[in-house]
Amino acid sequence: MYQDLKGKTAIVTGSSKGIGQAIALRFGQEEMNVVVNYKGDEDGAEETVQAIQKHGGGAVKVHADVSKEEGIQAIMDTALEHFGTVDVFVNNSGFNGEEALPHEMTLEQWQNVIDVNITGAFLGAKAALAYMMEHDIKGSILNISSVHQEIPRPFNVHYSTSKGGMNMMTKTLALDYAEAGIRINAIAPGTMATESNDDLQDELKKQKQLEKIPMRTFGEPKEIGAAAAFLVSKEAAYITGTTLFVDGGMTLYPSQIND
């Protein structure tokens, strides 16, 4: 537990399920106030809110599309209305998109992924930074990236490009706001044991994926939550512009990933 996080306010986009939900729940365990953002899964968002409150944190849910400025503004407005401040902003919302060879990929398929993964993260960071700068808050922004910011993902040029872009966005933002005391970092998960992970639904795919992970096991969303709590706490006060890989060693031999 990180005592300095108690009572602080965090926004976690896309936190009705999966990794986002795990981050929000860990923040709740730290007794933080959490704004739970969702786009489609209201029941999951409500479940997250109740779990956070059970752990002693404050929580409120808000429906918003992070790829739109008005969506980000709605999230910020909700945080300020209910909790009066924003100390942490987690850009977790992500979209895998449809697999396709690049020459067969439509502009719409490309844009749908870029809009959420890159534009959404930029808009979230921009809004949080503007607020923190205006109110002299030495806060944290955390981007949830992927091992595919380093490892090409076949038939997913849109996704790999978006995560590679997030890597450089994290570094550039960290450089621009270091002097202001605002830290910007990222977490790059490997294969996580989430319901939406197709590689876990088929036994053959599951075994093939495990062969690509040196630790021979999938990660748990709660492990990303633990990493997130550390990175936004004072224990990580001298860390900025860094991506923490939580991947069981998956990036240690990337040439194997595309076999």
Automatic annotation (TrEMBL):
Enzyme class: oxidoreductase
Superkingdom as given in the UniProt entry: Bacteria
EC number: 1.1.1.47
Alphabetical list of Pfam families matching this protein: adh_short_C2 (PF13561)
InterPro entries (UniProt xref): NAD(P)-bd_dom_sf, Sc_DH/Rdtase_CS, SDR, SDR_fam
Keywords, comma-separated and alphabetical: Oxidoreductase
Alphabetized SUPFAM superfamilies for the sequence: NAD(P)-binding Rossmann-fold domains
GO BP field: bile acid metabolic process
One GO MF term attached to the UniProt entry: glucose 1-dehydrogenase [NAD(P)+] activity
Gene3D superfamilies given in the database record: NAD(P)-binding Rossmann-like Domain (3.40.50.720)
Family: Belongs to the short-chain dehydrogenases/reductases (SDR) family.
Protein name according to UniProt: Glucose 1-dehydrogenase 2
Gene field: ycdF
